[in-house]
Amino acid sequence: MISVTRPLLPSQKKYNDLLTDIWDSQWVTNSGPKHQELEAKLSTRAGTNCALYANATLGLMGALAALELPKGSEVITTPFTFAATAHAISWAGLTPVFVDIDPTTLCLCPQAVATAITPKTSAILGVHVYGIACAVEALKEIADQHNLKIIYDAAHAFDSTLNGQPLVKWGDISICSYHATKLFNTIEGGGVYTENKALMEKIKQQRAFGKIAEDTYIAPGLNAKLSELHAAMGLAVLPLVEKERARRLDILEQYKKALNPLGVHFYEPQKNVSHSGQYCTAHIEHQKCGATRDNIHANLAKNDIYARKYFWPLCTDYPHYKNARKTDLTVSKQAVNNTLCLPFYGALSDADVQKVITVIQNCLKS
């Protein structure tokens, strides 16, 4: 079976060497040496402050809590995202408001954001979908005009740069995912980034029960610490990222060369945004290709190829959000039925890539 992704893993020997250090120290969690080393390396890599979290969902929750937004206030976000984006807003005691996306980037549409703002709005939560950058300058202008906070779900944007600068520097806070499905992974994990050092202290307090000293708790925080075992995995994976990304981008070019002439479009970052290498997402529109996304998805599955309808469904289709305030979502409703993530990982052989291409070509030509 050809899966949609596969975790980037180091050699067992490399990981075992790091585990030996942990066993020798007997320090397995609570900001141990491996945690501190990885956090420092990621901070340096991004040129800003990074706090490690047990996963990106908890990172989003901790970030929203650290901002101390008024309870019940509205956070404008996108319905075209993974459930965790909206769930974190709800868990923080805030109210998600869903607005439409830009048809080219699939990220938040600034005009839709501007029209949805009310006196109850406290923040904007954008998503850098597939590593494509949100319209960060336009959103900042809107946020500044209305005194709103900006949070970016950067789960797909590890290492991404905009005009040569790390994308995670935009907004008040950005959150990256280090889940096993991501290019850089700690198996489970996430990173919360901010330029604001005082805010970073709150973010770190949130991940450890709201604790600032022994027996001193100043907020109802989470237990969201990254263990030494996960940090060790991150340290072992980090040196492998560049080679893995290069191979993935080579695979993307193979897909594009074969499928673009048949009407399949691939979503990629803007020219001034570096490619994160997280996902290979095709836009499959029946009128242009002669086949539907669902038809291609089903035929791939029949050939033991697992592609993913990502994102599907929209967050607004979940029972919890069906009554949420939302604007016209025409573009989002089109995107959710036309996007398909194809197999995309460095260990994918050229023969496997060709098998994926052949199945899709047969669908489009039938």
SSE order and pairing:
Elements: H1 12-25, H2 33-46, E1 49-53, H3 56-66, E2 74-77, H4 83-91, E3 95-98, H5 110-116, E4 121-127, H6 136-146, E5 149-153, E6 161-162, E7 165-166, E8 173-177, E9 190-194, H7 197-206, E10 211-213, E11 216-217, H8 228-237, H9 241-259, E12 265-266, E13 281-283, H10 286-289, H11 293-302, H12 330-335, E14 339-341, H13 350-365
Parallel strand pairs: 2-3, 2-4, 4-5, 5-8
Antiparallel strand pairs: 1-9, 6-7, 8-9, 10-11, 12-13, 13-14
Helix pairs in contact: 1-8, 2-8, 3-4, 3-7, 9-13, 11-13
Question: Concise description?
Answer:
By secondary structure, the protein is of the alpha/beta class. The protein has 2 domains: 12-238, Aspartate Aminotransferase, domain 2; 240-365, Alpha-Beta Complex (Aspartate Aminotransferase, domain 1), CATH 3.90.1150.10. 39% of the residues lie in helices and 14% in strands.
